[in-house]
């Protein structure tokens, strides 16, 4: 007869199973991934359909038909991590690092993923408590939750993670103590296989429990710095024989004496106890023969003589012992330790004769300021020629006050610019497209960028490029050994930040293409987030914070339409065609004015065009743009005396500025565009459109414009005291003391806050800098130059993706990286301006960047934050700079790397108002008007409007007669 029906059923089921295993991703995993992606505003471009494994979704790795790995670092998702993650029950790796806008609380259901080995969420914005359920992840090896916004305490349940190797909770807002086990609950003492405890930069408190350390532990890095621990250091610390890096620094309430069995830690290389309140004798480091970096500055140890171990630690590169009441002669042997680079011994009682003979050739800096040294002999053999600082010693009062070593900075080599990878260009380097950079191999491409943080390097000489070259080489080798398309590595601007981490910028350049693909970024970022790359040992533990990598042509899909939030874009330079279209719209609008209301040609220009309101008055045929008058070419020619040389008061990026007098007697500044520049045309339009809508006493006002006979001109109020920049450089003759500077920055801040918060719709200026802040006769600040400005959507919280423009030195690095323009980009530029105002130096000059310089120098424990040397001498005596510290704090908040961490302008204004009060600068400026006029008298008649960038183009004029609407 026929075939048994059973055989048919059997064949059928085999077929079905075959389908299931060969083609279809496990349905639970697919729906899990789709559920996760539904909570994000973007997802990788090929996340479509229902078969992630077969279709090789970017960032997803499968084993069979199960998803085992998700790696999406630096993909720029915003949203939350949905509880759908629990569907991915075979997941072993989850890495969502460097997605700054990924936040919310972590779903407790993550604790059901018992196969999970690596949970890496570095540099996102997660909030709330760390779910105790993470303690159920019994296979977890790698837990990195650092650089988020977690609060609450460390869950004791994490003590159950018996396989944990890497445990990083640093740089959060955690509170409470370090949990230890008791009869019923586990604690951190149970983590006997963990090698890394990274808990620095939190608000952890209480004493460090002695039970937490035992000889069973294998810790090599113990980082508890920058917390609020109190009590004393437990002697059980001496049981951690494997320890290589120890940081307890900046726990101001850590007291008591340092346990004497510390000498047992013979593997310890980096030892940081600075800025605590430790007492008892200065620790005896005899026998700790691996030590390379020792910092015990600023503690309350009892007074002591120079310890004998000073000269017995051969690998020592850096010895920092400031303000510790150490007395005696500095032993010569200290300078000839073979590796010694930096000796910071300021503020002790070192006395007698300082004798430096035969110093190590590594030695770069000897700081002995504020000691009791009476004489100096520099040996004849190989004389020490590097920096030696002796100010504040009796030696300097004995007829040696002119000795360079007695100056504040000491005798020193010319300051070297910070390290930057060299470019090997054989010929003249090519000019790269705006979103590209030149690689060290002289190729223009879009690098993956971010910041490396080394938490405890074993060296201090940042001028020694061999360290950084080694870093580049080893990293490149790592990428290449994993077959990743990396051309080269570039490192820039290393500096020690306020948390005592060594920070530097990293760029990874693609090989064989202009831009990395999505899969490349997933791979490259993982090498750094997962610590697959290990730097040379002397660099110690590190972490990396990657930037969002913008994929060309919007490869990432936008899964939720953001159209509604899109801001109105004015004159955006998206390409020649759009420019022409926009200009056409303008022309149509102007020519149609006489006939009635303008016709709108396209949505985009709609709001722009509609704001060209026509106030047809019967008395004048010249139409008006709300508040701004339209001038004819002949009128302006007349009032500027035929654009005469004598009336020329400056040259800007795309034309000249002339002074003129209107028939009413009002002085104005006329900005005349050079003909034929499309860029100029756009900026012209933008500026009229914006300025005719804004009226504020801290924003320069537009009197009118001219669009006639092929000419484009803008007519402003005349602002007599030039730009803030000119005042800072002394060019304008207006002297600015501390109080005046405060009032000027307050005015500028108010102007910008008005643009951000009160203008309708809000405006991003995009080119805040000292040469765009004008000073009137009463030194009121007026923000000018709106050529690059942008309008934001009605809600004002929008962001715009746009070609990066602005002025180097003031440019927001986040905007530069992501091309996402927000009001916080202006806040960044304003922060740079704040720093410029107190240093009176160009923000970016010969490789020195004021932001890095101040960040690197700030020492919050010191008077004036230790910044005396960076301050503009013209500010006057530092004793008179009330509020300076608060000012610096504010400026540094404004230049936070991440926009969300910068304060909004409204807050900046109220903070400056507070500082103004502290400085007693709140009085009306009546006095300064006459005062400044005497300086004004010395000015050159030619107003130096010369620009340092094409957009540096400012108007001037007499005090406006305009009555400001309140
Ligand atoms: C053990 O410690 C936990 C928290 O660390 C606490 O809630 C519990 O009460 C303690 N149990 C005992 C018996 O001390
Ligand atoms: C944690 O350590 C304590 C003390 O060594 C021990 O009694 C307890 O059983 C450990 N708990 C776990 C879960 O390992
Ligand atoms: C430092 O410790 C001493 C006592 O040991 C205490 O009196 C003092 O207040 C502490 N200082 C700080 C800043 O905690
Ligand atoms: C550790 O240090 C203590 C005190 O200095 C000493 O008595 C002990 O023998 C040392 N232990 C080891 C294993 O070296």
Helices, strands, pairings?
Elements: H1 5-22, H2 27-38, E1 42-43, E2 60-63, E3 66-71, E4 78-80, E5 93-95, E6 101-105, E7 118-120, E8 125-127, E9 142-144, E10 166-168, E11 196-198, E12 205-207, E13 221-223, E14 228-232, E15 245-247, E16 253-255, E17 270-272, E18 293-295, E19 304-305, E20 318-320, E21 326-328, E22 342-344, E23 349-356, E24 365-367, E25 372-378, E26 387-389, E27 437-438, E28 444-445, E29 448-454, H3 465-481, E30 486-496, E31 502-510, H4 518-529, E32 542-546, E33 557-558, H5 576-592, H6 603-610, E34 629-631, H7 633-639, E35 648-652, E36 655-661, E37 667-673, H8 678-691, E38 702-708, E39 711-717, H9 724-728, H10 738-758, E40 763-764, E41 773-775, E42 781-783, E43 790-791, E44 800-801, H11 813-818, E45 820-821, H12 823-839, E46 844-845, E47 848-849, H13 850-857, H14 884-894, H15 905-918, H16 926-936
Parallel strand pairs: 3-5, 4-6, 5-7, 6-8, 7-9, 9-10, 10-11, 11-13, 12-14, 13-15, 14-16, 15-17, 17-18, 18-20, 19-21, 20-22, 21-23, 22-24, 23-25, 24-26, 34-38
Antiparallel strand pairs: 1-33, 2-3, 27-28, 29-31, 29-32, 30-31, 35-36, 36-37, 37-39, 38-39, 40-43, 41-42, 44-45, 46-47
Residues 238, 260-261, 263-264 line the site of one 2-acetamido-2-deoxy-beta-D-glucopyranose.
């Amino acid at each position: 007869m026929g075939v048994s029906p059973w055989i048919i059923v059997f064949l059928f089921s085999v077929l079905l199973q075959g389908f299931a295993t060969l083609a279809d991703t496990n349905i639970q995993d697919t729906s899990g991934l789709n559920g996760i992606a539904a909570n994000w505003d973007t997802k990788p471009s090929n996340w479509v359909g229902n078969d992630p494994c077969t279709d090789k979704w970017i960032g997803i790795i499968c084993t069979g038909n199960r998803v085992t790995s998700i790696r999406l670092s630096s993909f720029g998702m915003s949203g939350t991590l949905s509880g759908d993650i629990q569907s991915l029950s075979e997941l072993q790796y989850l890495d969502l690092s460097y997605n700054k806008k990924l936040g919310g609380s972590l779903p407790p259901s993550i604790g059901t993923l018992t196969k999970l080995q690596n949970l890496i969420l570095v540099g996102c914005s997660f909030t709330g408590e760390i779910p105790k359920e993470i303690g159920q992840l019994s296979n977890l090896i790698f837990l990195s939750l650092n650089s988020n916004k977690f609060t609450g305490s460390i869950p004791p349940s994490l003590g159950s993670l018996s396989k944990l190797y890497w445990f990083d909770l640093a740089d959060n807002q955690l509170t409470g103590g370090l949990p230890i086990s008791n009869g019923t609950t586990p604690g951190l003492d149970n983590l006997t296989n963990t090698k890394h405890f990274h808990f620095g930069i939190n608000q952890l408190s209480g004493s460090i429990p002695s039970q937490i350390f035992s000889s069973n532990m294998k810790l090599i890095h113990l980082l508890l710095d920058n917390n609020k621990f109190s009590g004393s250091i437990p002697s059980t610390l001496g049981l951690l024989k494997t320890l290589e890096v120890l940081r307890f620094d900046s726990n101001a309430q850590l007291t008591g004496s340092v346990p004497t069995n510390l000498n047992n830690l013979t593997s310890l290389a980096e030892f940081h106890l600075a800025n605590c309140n430790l007492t008892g004798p200065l620790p005896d480091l005899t026998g700790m023969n691996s030590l390379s970096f020792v910092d015990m500055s600023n503690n309350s140890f009892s007074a002591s003589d120079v310890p004998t171990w000073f000269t017995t630690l051969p690998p020592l590169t850096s010895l920092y012992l400031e303000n510790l009441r150490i007395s005696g002669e500095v032993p010569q042997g200290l300078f000839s330790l073979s590796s010694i680079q930096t000796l910071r011994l300021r503020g002790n009682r070192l006395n007698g004769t300082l004798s430096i003979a035969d110093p190590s050739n590594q030695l770069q800096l000897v700081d002995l300021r504020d000691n009791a040294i009476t004489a100096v002999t520099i040996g004849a053999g190989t004389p020490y020629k590097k920096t030696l600082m002796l100010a504040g010693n009796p030696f300097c009062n004995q007829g040696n006050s002119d000795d360079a070593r007695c100056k504040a900075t000491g005798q020193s080599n010319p300051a070297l610019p910070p390290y930057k990878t060299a470019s090997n260009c054989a010929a003249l380097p090519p000019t790269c497209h705006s979103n590209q950079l030149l690689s060290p191999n002289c190729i223009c491409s879009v690098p993956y960028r971010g910041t490396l943080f080394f938490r405890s390097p074993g060296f201090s000489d940042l001028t020694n490029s061999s360290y950084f070259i080694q870093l580049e080489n080893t990293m490149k080798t790592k990428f290449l050994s994993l077959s990743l398309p990396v051309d080269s590595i570039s490192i820039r601007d290393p500096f020690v930040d306020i948390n005592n981490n060594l920070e530097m910028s990293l760029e990874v350049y693609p090989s064989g293409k202009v831009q990395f693909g999505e899969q490349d970024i997933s791979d490259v970022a993982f090498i750094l987030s997962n610590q697959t790359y290990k730097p040379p040992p002397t660099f110690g533990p590190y972490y990396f914070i990657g930037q969002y990598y913008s994929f060309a042509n919007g490869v990432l899909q936008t899964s939720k339409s953001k159209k509604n939030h899109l801001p109105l874009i004015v004159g955006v330079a998206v390409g020649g065609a759009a420019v022409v279209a926009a200009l056409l719209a303008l022309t149509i609008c102007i020519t149609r004015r006489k006939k009635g209301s303008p016709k709108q040609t396209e949505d985009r220009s709609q709001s722009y065009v509609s704001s060209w309101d026509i106030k047809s008055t019967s008395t004048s045929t010249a139409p008006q743009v709300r508040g701004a008058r339209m001038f004819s070419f002949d009128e302006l020619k007349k009032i500027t005396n035929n654009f005469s040389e004598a009336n020329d008061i400056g040259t800007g990026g795309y034309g000249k500025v002339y002074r003129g007098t209107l028939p009413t007697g009002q002085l104005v500044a006329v900005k005349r565009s050079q003909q034929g520049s499309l860029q100029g045309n756009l900026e012209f339009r933008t500026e009229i459109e914006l300025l005719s809508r804004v009226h504020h006493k801290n924003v320069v006002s537009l009197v009118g414009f001219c669009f006639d006979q092929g000419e484009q001109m803008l007519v402003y109020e005349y602002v007599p005291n030039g730009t803030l920049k000119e005042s800072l450089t002394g060019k304008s003759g207006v002297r600015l003391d501390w109080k005046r500077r405060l009032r000027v920055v307050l005015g500028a801040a108010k102007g910008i806050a008005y643009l951000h918060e009160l203008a309708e719709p809000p405006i991003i200026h995009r080119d805040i800098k000292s040469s765009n802040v004008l000073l009137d006769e009463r030194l009121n600040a007026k923000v000018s130059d709106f050529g690059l400005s942008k309008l934001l959507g009605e809600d004002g919280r929008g962001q715009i993706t746009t070609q990066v423009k602005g002025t180097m030195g003031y440019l927001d690095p986040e905007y530069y990286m992501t091309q996402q323009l927000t009001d916080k980009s202006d806040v960044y530029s304003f922060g740079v301006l704040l720093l410029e105002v107190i240093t009176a130096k160009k923000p970016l000059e010969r490789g020195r960047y004021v932001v890095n310089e101040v960040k690197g120098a700030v020492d919050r424990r010191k008077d004036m934050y230790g910044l005396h040397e960076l301050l503009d001498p013209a500010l006057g005596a530092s004793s008179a700079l009330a509020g300076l510290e608060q000012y610096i704090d504010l400026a540094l908040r404004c230049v936070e790397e991440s926009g969300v961490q910068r304060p909004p302008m409204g807050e900046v204004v109220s903070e400056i108002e507070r500082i103004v009060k502290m400085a007693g600068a709140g009085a009306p400026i009546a006095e300064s008007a006459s005062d400044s006029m005497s300086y004004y008298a010395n000015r050159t008649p030619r107003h130096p409007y010369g620009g340092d960038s094409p957009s540096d183009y400012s108007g001037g004029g007499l005090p406006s007669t305009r009555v400001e609407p309140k």
